[in-house]
Amino acid sequence: MLTIDPRRSLLLIVDFQSRLMPAIDQGTTAVRNARRLIDMAGLVDIPTVFTEQNAKGLGATVAELATTEVRLIHKMTFDAVREREFLGAVPPDRHLVVAGCEAHVCVQQTVLGLIDAGRKVYVVRDALGSRRAEDKETAIRRMERHGAEIVTTEMVVFEWLETAAHPRFREAIALIK
């Protein structure tokens, strides 16, 4: 299957943290699209995992995204896969839809670690952030070269819906308007 299978999906939200976000280029857009993904995942029962990098230094997840209905993994490694508990929270049959910051550091290293571990990964380009646009674009190209599918928030929403007859269709459309 070339489209994102909602029955096998898991949403991974990487390091949208309070002390980091003010420095992120187009950070408001990345947060808004991550919120849409989180809300959509809730509508169609897709599990969500959050990571926080060095929370003592970078703060907790921004208030706009914080929710209690997800698993949170604290980490010090840039690549979340290197954290002992991470792969246990991400079943091997899941396709990972990834959003986060910074695209060229923790997102990229985690995505490359997931691909190296044999996982299918979809990187949501309009829900990524870096301090510099050049770093973000370079990271996207690198992740794609190594096997990540590059998608947008709207692509994810419609692939998770699969059909206009989906019972949550109207609610999903409201998220992207």
TrEMBL record:
- What is the top-level taxon of the source organism? Bacteria
The protein's matches in Pfam families, at most eight in alphabetical order, are given as:
Isochorismatase (PF00857)
* Residues covered by the Isochorismatase-like domain: 9-154
Coiled-coil residues: none
Q: Which InterPro entries match?
A: Isochorismatase-like_dom, Isochorismatase-like_sf, Isochorismatase_domain
Q: Can you name this protein?
A: Nicotinamidase-related amidase
